[in-house]
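Ticket #360: bound-state structure for zinc ion.
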Amino acid sequence: MYDLIVRHGLAALPDGVRPVDIAVLDGRIADVGTVTGTAGRVIDASGLWILPGGVEPHMHVENDFLGLSTVNDFFTQSVAAAFGGVTTFFDFANAERGGSLIEAMDGRKEQMAKSAIDYAVHGRVLEPGHITELPEAVLAGCPSFKVYMAYAEVGLMVDDATLLAAFRAAHAARALPLVHAESDPIAAALTEEARREGDLSWSRYPDTRPPLCEAEAFARAARFARLADCPLYMVHTSVAEAVEEARRARQAGLRLYVETCPQYLILTRDLYDDPERGHLAICAPPLRDGRDQPALWQALADGTIDCVGSDDCAYTIAAKAAHLECDPDGKPIPDFTRVVQGVPGIETRLPLLLSEGVAS
Ligand SMILES: [Zn+2]
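RESOLUTION: The complex was predicted; output attached.
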């Protein structure tokens, strides 16, 4: 007598995709195949997929950016996640300058305790003080940490010396750095140029963070990690040139994990051409022109890209426009530097991958 039998569902097994029964006893899979016997509960999954619970490695919840808070708390986020097939999610301990990484981790765990699903915390390193706390963070069950190569203007960026020091410390502490790879000098110079030319429209935004902005930072991080002999997890990879860097780095022996997001697989930058709603799609890296998408799908299929995280960072429509100034008629004046970055996606991640990656 099993606790649960799910019958006739499609499962991806080592020998291919086929319909199976799955029996569960005491919270564990007890049998897979043609299951005889009875169970307290039987689910007929004919014509449906049976998937393991999804893990969301990348999201931002109860997070302030530009003084604006994301729309969900950890409870409502966890409900959205569960509807999207996610049973475990990670957020970041937002350690601040002058503050402790360990204290930020502990505070984040308390905030996340209201989640209806399993949860875990990545650390964040902004400065050398946080690096010295890495061994303790690993011992406390938090072996991964985020570093930003961009956003100097809001104090999030680590400079090259700190980045390399963090990687060397990660080697020693057996920790895994998660890297936001965008070149701050490139983004800053092109944003300044757009400002000088008086064009801060939504459609100009992706030109200020072009594919080279990501590929340059990706390559730099990969080479630093090879030097430091630490593994590396690259978040939200969005361009073919970065995928090429990933292949090169792996050939050189780097233990590398590459993430992309549904928005880069599916959406394109023409959304920014809508003057009324284009700002709702502002995220970083920006949406691309579509030429990168075949390479991303191919990299996902051949294993160069390991996983799809949502980078869910959901703001209300009002929050996306909150810092815009208005003209005398009350219409918002486009200025992408005043729009908080981020798009939602935790609930739609798995359905989109099934519809766009498997069914179509
Ligand atoms: Zn993110």
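RESOLUTION NOTES: The mean pLDDT is 96.
TICKET STATUS: resolved
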